[in-house]
Specification:
Length: about 325
C-alpha cells in the first residue's frame, strides 16, 4: 500500500520483491501494526517524499540476506521506527542515536511494512520473543517501545497519569502496574469506551482529560497529539513531578501561567527511540507479560485502519496482516 500523494488515500500497487543490499535482510511481512505516527500520510510530519510505503511496527520472517549478514532463513525479526543512524556523530557516541541528524526512519524515509515483503538493515532489527503471536508482537515495536522509553523518562513515581488511552498507553499501563504503580487514565470527553478499556486494563481511575484526578500525580505521559493537554497535565502533577510528551507530533501548546511549571516541575519530550530501548523492552515484555489488544485488517484495508485511527475509533492497536 503506497502513499502517492500527501493527504490522499494509499494505493494498492504490485511491485517486484525487493533485493537486500549488503547488511540488509529481506523479510516476508507477517504483521505490521498501524501507529499514530503513520498519520504523517496526512501531512503532519515534514519531508515526506512519495511514493512511500508506510509502516514501522513490522514482524517479518527472514527470506534471504545480503552480504555480511548471517541470519538464518525463517528467523522472526521485528523492524521498528529507527531504520539507521550514522554511528559517528556526538549523539550516536553518547548513546542518543534517536537524535542523530542523519537518522532515517522506517515507513518515513525508508519503505516500510504495509507490504508483503520489505528490506531492513539487520543491525536495527530485533528477535521476536517466543510465545508472542505475529499480530500481538507488532505493536510492541513502536507503541510498546516508545511507551517504555516515556515511562523511564517519567521517573519512578508511584502515581502515573496517561493522557490518551490507545495503543501505547494500554501497553505502558501494563508495565507500570507490573512495577507496582497506580495508573490514572485520561481520554477525550465522553469517550466512555476508552475509559472502560482503561479500567479493564487496571487503571485505578479514568475520566476525561479536562477532569482533575482524585489524587496529585507523580508523573504524566501525554500520548494524545493535543497541545492543550500539556498545561492540563502540569496542573495534575505535584511539585517536583514530570510531564512527558511521548508523541512525535503535537498541536501547538497554548500559553500557560508560570505557576504551573514552578515548583520544580519538569516538562520534556521523547524523540523516537534507541535500539537499547527496543531490546530492553522486548526482554521485559514476556516477564510482565505485556499483551497487546489488537484488531486485525487485511493489507488492502490499510486505509480503513488509518481512518479508524484518525477518528479515535480503535480499542488498542490495529494490525495489518498481508
Amino acid at each position: 500500500m503506497v502513499l502517492t500523494r500527501t493527504g490522499a488515500p494509499l494505493e494498492l500497487e504490485e511491485r517486484p520483491v525487493p533485493v537486500p543490499s549488503d547488511g540488509e535482510v529481506l523479510l516476508r511481512v507477517r504483521a505490521c501494526a498501524v501507529c499514530r505516527t503513520d498519520l504523517h500520510v496526512d501531512g503532519e510530519l515534514e519531508s515526506v517524499r512519495p511514493p512511500l510505503v508506510p509502516g514501522h511496527e513490522i514482524v517479518g520472517e527472514v527470506v534471504s540476506a545480503g552480504a555480511g549478514v548471517s541470519i538464518a532463513a525463517g528467523t522472526r525479526l521485528g523492524v521498528p521506527w529507527l531504520g539507521s543512524s550514522c554511528g559517528r556523530c556526538e549523539f550516536c557516541a553518547r548513546g542518543q542515536e534517536n537524535l542523530c541528524d542523519t537518522a532515517r526512519f522506517t515507513g518515513y524515509q525508508i519503505d516500510g511494512g504495509y507490504a508483503e515483503y520489505t528490506v531492513a538493515d539487520h543491525r536495527y532489527c530485533f528477535p521476536i520473543p517466543e510465545g508472542l503471536g505475529d499480530a500481538e508482537a507488532a505493536p510492541l515495536l513502536c507503541a510498546g517501545a516508545i511507551g517504555y522509553r516515556s515511562l523511564r523518562m517519567a521517573g519512578a513515581g508511584r502515581r502515573l497519569g496517561l493522557y490518551g488511552f490507545g495503543a501505547a498507553a494500554h501497553l505502558v499501563a501494563q508495565i507500570a502496574l507490573f512495577e507496582g504503580r497506580e495508573v490514572y487514565a485520561f481520554t477525550r470527553e465522553g469517550d466512555r469506551a476508552a475509559q472502560e478499556f482503561a479500567r479493564v486494563m487496571g487503571a485505578r481511575w479514568s475520566g476525561s482529560s479536562d477532569e482533575s484526578p482524585p489524587v496529585e500525580l507523580d508523573a504524566a505521559i501525554i500520548f494524545a497529539p493535543a497541545g492543550p493537554l500539556v498545561p492540563a497535565a502540569l496542573r495534575a502533577v505535584r511539585k517536583g513531578g514530570t510531564v512527558v510528551c511521548g508523541g512525535i507530533h503535537m498541536s501547538d501548546i497554548p500559553s500557560f501561567p508560570y505557576s504551573l511549571l514552578w515548583g520544580e516541575r519538569v516538562l520534556r519530550s521523547v524523540a523516537n527511540l534507541t535500539r537499547r530501548d527496543a531490546a530492553e523492552f522486548l526482554q521485559l515484555a514476556p516477564r510482565v507479560p505485556v499483551r497487546a489488544r489488537v484488531e486485525t485488517f487485511r493489507l488492502d484495508e490499510a486505509n480503513a485502519a488509518l481512518d479508524r485511527l484518525r477518528h479515535g475509533d480503535l480499542t488498542g492497536a490495529a494490525v495489518l496482516i498481508p
